[in-house]
Design goal:
The chain has 449 residues and is of the alpha/beta class. The chain folds into four domains: 60 residues; 106 residues, Immunoglobulin-like, CATH 2.60.40; 232 residues, von Willebrand factor, type A domain (Rossmann fold); 32 residues, no CATH class. 39% of the residues lie in helices and 27% in strands. It has a six-stranded mixed beta sheet with strand order 18-17-14-19-20-21, with helices on both faces. The protein has a five-stranded antiparallel beta sheet with strand order 1-10-9-5-6. Strands 2-4-7 form a three-stranded antiparallel beta sheet, with no helix packed on it. The chain is elongated, with a radius of gyration of 33 Å.
Length: 449
């Protein structure tokens, strides 16, 4: 009864060896019309194959739990990063089994031919490892783990489905990079990420120490009384001002929908905002967040409370781009109402034309009068590739001319913003985080806030 129940609950498939054996027997029966002596041998072979098939079926289906499999992965995935997944298989058969594992991946990956093969030794565990790179935030549903196992005869294949492995995970903004930048923020060193070294000179009112003057120290910090007593130049050291407000303003309008390397500009901005907020908190500043499009979205007031990073992470998790024009007038009104203290505002947006910038420039200038505004927008890397290629035809010349015009307009935008005293970063999407964090540390070292 257990054997019949196992056959019913676990679908059986015919192996390649059994198919080949049946084909050979059919050919033998055909040849037996011309060679009568071959008929008896073929009938004996049919009986032998049937017996071997029954033995193979009994070997595969009599054990109740011949194979145990489970999926090992985190409940959260980091968006845009490689996330490790492990499939652990334990072979309870008394022999080495050739196993094929199929993991039902979330539909967002659009992978329909995923399978891994392993030779699982008896009474031992085997681990299959692979990585997944999500490019969209949200919920991802893993299906069952399917295991196809064979005996040494390999005539039949037994499928075992582990439905208990179905689970839903959350893909959050890139927290892998956040951990990486935490260490760099603690060490005050971003050179490994491609950032330049910045010499920090504090000018706040919080006094730290008196030290001997070295080349590069600010002469405005010379302590003349200590210099007279010591007989050599002495300068005051001041610590950096702390508890300053740093807000990340994320544009969710249609200009942020453009994809680069699988991620949208909004995803790049969200990842950079998460890392920048963490670095700001490490530097003992207060981090906040405002999202907006044609309406004001979520607002996380600047704070240094213990759960602030969790609040920011949960807020960024569900952000989506809209297809309407961004309303900077409402952003200006919201900042005037909510942010009363002078703060560093880092605006993640994108301008594709000079006309688009000119429409929003009055509001940006108004914001910069009350706060230190840093505008971050993106280079079109695909256009840069076109401009770097050599033109081979008249069409190539036309495309290259248009691409160079757009690239020139981006540079004009940078000059126009800086002309009005607005700090600006024009960056490739993949270098967004490095450039933004480096600019924040530079502004902080200059005591610009």
């Amino acid at each position: 009864m257990n054997f019949l129940k196992a056959l019913y609950n676990n679908p059986v498939f015919i192996g390649r060896r059994l198919y080949l054996a049946v084909v050979i027997l059919i050919l033998a029966f055909v040849l037996s019309f011309f060679l009568p002596w071959l008929l008896l041998i073929t009938k004996i072979a049919v009986v032998a194959l049937a017996i071997l098939t029954l033995v193979d079926a009994a070997t595969l289906f009599l054990p109740r739990r011949p194979i145990l499999a489970n999926r090992i992965c985190s409940d959260r995935f980091s968006n845009g990063d490689q996330n490790k997944v492990q499939l652990k298989v334990y072979n309870n058969f008394p022999f080495t089994s050739q196993i094929e594992i199929i993991d039902e991946l979330p539909i967002q990956f659009q992978i329909h031919d995923f399978s891994k093969k392993v030779a699982a030794k008896s009474k031992e565990s085997s681990i299959v490892e692979y990585s997944l790179r999500p490019v969209e935030r949200g919920e991802y549903h893993f299906g069952s783990v399917l295991v196809y196992c064979k005996s040494p005869l390999q005539l039949l294949i037994r499928r075992i489905e582990f439905t208990q492995e179905e689970r839903t995970i959350r893909v959050l903004p890139s927290y892998f990079l956040m951990r990486q930048y935490e260490l760099k923020a603690f060490s005050n060193n971003l050179q490994d990420g491609g950032s330049k070294k910045i010499r920090k000179i504090g000018h706040s009112l919080e006094f730290e120490q008196i030290k001997e003057y070295v080349r590069g120290d600010d002469i405005r910090s010379i302590n003349w009384k200590a210099t007279a007593r010591k007989g050599g130049l002495m300068v005051n050291n001041y610590t950096d001002e702390k508890s300053q407000q740093v807000y990340c303003l994320i544009d969710k309008g249609r200009v942020m929908k453009s994809p680069f390397n699988g991620l949208s500009l909004l995803d790049y901005a969200i990842n950079a905002s998460l890392i920048l907020s963490r670095v700001a908190l490490i530097k003992q500043d207060r981090a906040g967040l405002i999202t907006f499009d044609h309406q004001i979205g979520q607002v996380v007031p600047a704070s240094r409370v213990q759960g602030q990073m969790t609040n920011i992470l949960e807020t960024l998790y569900n952000q989506q781009t809209r297809y309407l024009e961004t309303d900077y007038e409402k952003l200006y009104a919201q900042l005037k109402f909510r942010v009363n203290q002078r703060s560093l505002l880092i605006l993640f947006t994108n301008f594709e034309s000079m006309a688009g910038l000119e429409r929003q420039l009055p509001y940006l200038r108004a914001i910069s009068r009350s706060h230190l505004l840093l505008v971050v927008f993106f280079e079109n890397t695909e256009l840069n590739q076109i401009t770097s290629q050599k033109a081979q035809s008249l069409e190539d010349i036309y495309m290259k001319t248009i691409a160079e015009r757009f690239s020139y307009e981006k540079k004009r935008m940078v000059k126009e913003l800086r002309k009005h005293g607005i700090f600006t970063i024009l960056t490739e999407p993949e270098n967004l985080t490095i450039n933004t964090v480096n600019q924040y540390l530079e502004l902080k070292s200059r005591q610009a806030i």
